[in-house]
Recover the amino acids of this structure.
């Protein structure tokens, strides 16, 4: 079990990552709160040390994705949220950004992680495959489909890289 | 597209409030978990450790507390220490011959009857037991004296009888004072008593000289002194609470010989003086003289042992 200082450091370091994954999956601040608690509680209770920082970060991402999925499952069992609530976001952002994020959020759920990890975190398809425990080819497929959908949603003026 | 998405995501940051709340709540939860787990398990571990220590310590103590001794003298002179479960917890040799025997056999943690059988058997094998030889055994118990003594006696007597029926045997019980004194001199109690008697008739004798002689030899020595010299033993000086009187008398006249053990119960009326007049001729009828045999050898011994039991 890790101490308070380590917990604080880890939260400082990974909170944004976790929050973004929460964002692409969950719409509710309270759900994000739940996921945060679960992820970081697991983190500080973990006794097995991480090999390195990459490993640590990958672990955090995997745990967060799983926690989000679990939360969604129970979320739908617990209560039914109207579609309107999905768009209420606590973040302040300009229209451009909002359009972009909305485009991402309109993607099927499984594509969102891939998009986030690929474009923001800069993971390769191979790394994403290992983090999400999927086949590489699946990730390639998801990635190309997600890109296509984004392109059409955002006007397709964005170049591939 | 990459930059656009990247920038969009960059707008999303974990709220400070969220971080704070998360930290607070996970520490609370983790604390609670480890606290309850810790307290319970520490308590459980302590309790079981304590119990284990207590039980094992107690039984260890019980097992390794001596509660009886059997000393056997042929010439090998060996003492078995017995715990309250009738298991041998220590075997000690008083002389060289005894050491030799003990080196060859392992008596520890055997039940005492088996140990006695093995011991006597080994002595027989080594040729220490001879026809008409003398086997002396002394017994002492700290605990449940009466019944237990009789059991010990019976076992020792039967064992000797079984292995070598034509041996003489003497079985005494001794009190703790005699036992202690014998221990200090590093001889078995039976021999100690015999040596004391020898010293009475031959005051120059030392314990050291006698240690490696058998009781029979010491008896012979006494005998020779007595028959050659003046009759010292009239004085009946009592050693260590009159332990030695009976043997003294025996030696002054006719050897007290019996193939059965002489410590039969029930003859507590006889005293040392009577023995003086008695001449025990051989080994016949006198052992079982429970009711009437004040003059018998049996009575002689029994008074002896009885006295000591009361002593204890």
């Amino acid at each position: 079990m890790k101490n308070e200082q380590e917990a604080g450091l880890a939260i400082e370091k990974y909170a944004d990552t976790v929050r973004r994954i929460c964002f692409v999956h969950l719409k509710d601040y309270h759900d994000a709160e739940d996921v945060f608690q679960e992820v970081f509680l697991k983190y500080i209770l973990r006794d097995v040390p991480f090999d390195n920082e990459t490993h640590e970060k990958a672990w955090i991402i995997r745990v967060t994705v799983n926690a989000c999925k679990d939360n969604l499952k129970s979320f739908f069992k617990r209560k039914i949220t109207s579609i309107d609530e999905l768009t209420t976001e606590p973040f302040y952002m300009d229209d451009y950004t909002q359009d972009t994020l909305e485009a991402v959020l309109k993607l099927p759920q499984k594509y969102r992680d891939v998009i986030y990890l690929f474009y923001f975190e800069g993971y390769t398809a191979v790394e994403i495959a290992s983090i999400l425990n999927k086949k590489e080819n699946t990730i390639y497929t998801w990635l190309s489909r997600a890109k296509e959908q984004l392109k059409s949603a955002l006007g397709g003026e964005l170049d591939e890289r | 597209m990459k930059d656009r998405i990247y920038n969009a995501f960059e707008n999303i940051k974990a709220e400070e409030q969220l971080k704070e709340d998360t930290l607070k709540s996970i520490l609370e939860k983790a604390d609670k978990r480890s606290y309850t787990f810790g307290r319970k398990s520490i308590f459980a571990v302590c309790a079981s450790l304590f119990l284990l220590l207590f039980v094992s310590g107690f039984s260890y103590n019980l097992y390794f507390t001596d509660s009886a001794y059997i000393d056997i003298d042929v010439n090998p002179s060996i003492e078995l220490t017995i715990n309250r479960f009738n298991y041998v917890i220590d075997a000690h040799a008083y002389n060289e011959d005894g050491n030799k025997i003990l080196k060859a056999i392992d008596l520890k943690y055997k039940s005492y009857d088996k140990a006695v059988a093995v011991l006597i058997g080994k002595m027989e094998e080594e040729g220490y037991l001879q026809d008409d030889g003398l086997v002396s055994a002394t017994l002492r118990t700290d605990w449940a004296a009466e019944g237990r003594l009789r059991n010990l006696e019976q076992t020792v007597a039967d064992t000797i009888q079984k292995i070598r029926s034509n041996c003489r045997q003497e079985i005494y019980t001794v009190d703790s004072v005699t036992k202690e004194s014998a221990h200090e001199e590093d001889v078995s109690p039976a021999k100690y008593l015999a040596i004391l008697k020898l010293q009475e008739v031959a005051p120059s004798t030392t314990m050291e000289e006698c240690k490696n002689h058998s009781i029979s030899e010491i008896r012979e020595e006494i005998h020779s002194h007595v028959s050659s010299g003046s009759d010292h033993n009239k004085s009946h000086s009592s050693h260590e609470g009159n332990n030695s009187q009976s043997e003294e008398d025996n030696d002054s006249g006719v050897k007290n010989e019996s193939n059965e053990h002489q410590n039969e119960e029930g003859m507590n009326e006889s005293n040392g003086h009577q023995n003086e007049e008695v001449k025990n001729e051989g080994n016949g009828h006198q052992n079982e003289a429970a009711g009437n045999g004040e003059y018998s050898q049996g009575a002689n011994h029994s008074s002896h042992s009885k006295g000591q039991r009361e002593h204890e």
